[in-house]
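Holo model, NAP. Inputs:
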Amino acid sequence: MGVKKLAILGSTGSIGKSTLEVVAAHRERFPVVSLAAARSVEELARQAALFQPQVLAVLDKEAADKLKTLLPPGLKAEVVYGPQGYLQAAAGCGADMVLSAMVGAAGLLPTYAAIKAGIDVALANKETLVAAGELVMAAARESGSAIVPVDSEHSAIYQSLMGNDPAGVRRLWLTASGGPFWSFTKEQLAGVTPEMALAHPTWSMGPKITIDSATLMNKGLEVIEAHWLFDRGYDDIKVVIHPQSVVHSLVEYVDGSFLAQLGLPDMKTPIAFALAHPQRLALDTPQLNLAQVARLSFEEPDLERFPALGLAFAAGREGGSAPAVMNAANEVAVGLFLRGSLTYGQITACVRAVLDEHQTHSLPSVAAVLEADRWARAQARAWAESHGGAA
Ligand SMILES: NC(=O)c1ccc[n+]([C@@H]2O[C@H](COP(=O)([O-])OP(=O)(O)OC[C@H]3O[C@@H](n4cnc5c(N)ncnc54)[C@H](OP(=O)(O)O)[C@@H]3O)[C@@H](O)[C@H]2O)c1
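Output:
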């Protein structure tokens, strides 16, 4: 395999750090040309000293000034900030591949810029496809940029599709751990706190996706992501609860075969696959012992206790601006829940209320996506304020 120059967006987050662990074990193959984060400048300075990128991008001037004081003397990295800075980190450093792992809609513009420039993308930032799937996939077709999923479920599907005729696919099956509250009653769910929701049973992840996993909105976002990545209708995408998180997802073929990818829940495996495929990188991760796992169980999702999944299917089917609006409202509601301003149940109630208010329209441009995103954020904050949450 040749050398692949990497830009890593969201390098200080859970996925970003796991990516740098993979890269550290394969330094000669993956030189890092840029790193981007928001405000975690101490961590970014540590990473810069280790990986010697050309460009470091942060959220604003204040973070950039602070970062400059922390960089080791002699490091030649250019420090940039704001939207232009992120665009430079993504598409202006000569990267062969962008690892897109900023959280939320913040990832959209730099990821889109990389795709427009024909740079391959290892995509963790599912919100980009949820909000702007049609535009993003059209841009990738036009520029020739390959989008390789990092999400473990989509990586599993991608791998289970390899070498097979897409015409033979009957359905895609996304597995979901069910999150920490899968066995909770409606009454118990009403008492869920941020601390309880942040303790995911099988995956260690950033706070936003951990809360999304607890409401099953994460699976809903993944359904929409799968629709765009694999060009399948929503009737052909199924979700099944699988608490052990060992079978990462499956493809069902018309002859009755199911192909799946299995592994321990460790994001380094799908990250390594996205960076190197079709080759495999040797990783020093714990190995799956099937006899020890002993039992793999599967059950239907309960849309009554976890309505976010049904909302996401409906928004995906509606299309146009509905998924972007749902995504933005959810991001606001999750932020307010984490700050103690909304209850667990109000996260999905807020998203539903914003979607109910929304007149779906088409999204012909990224500007239109950003406008729908802004509208939904304002609506979600207003809903929260009128329901006792300080927005
Ligand atoms: N974690 C997982 O296992 C996992 C699995 C599949 C998919 N994903 C997806 O990967 C993405 C990242 O998830 P994560 O769990 O790694 O999140 P995380 O731990 O919260 O990290 C988020 C990263 O994004 C940066 N960031 C936050 N706000 C930003 C902004 N406004 N502008 C630019 N950068 C910003 C953060 O920088 P600071 O540190 O400076 O705030 C950090 O580097 C999400 O889209 C998530 O859905 C995650």
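The longest strand covers residues 169-176. Residues 10-16, 37-40, 59, 101-103, 106, 124-127, 151, 203, 205-209, 267 surround NAP (CB under 6 Å).
Archived with the compound record.
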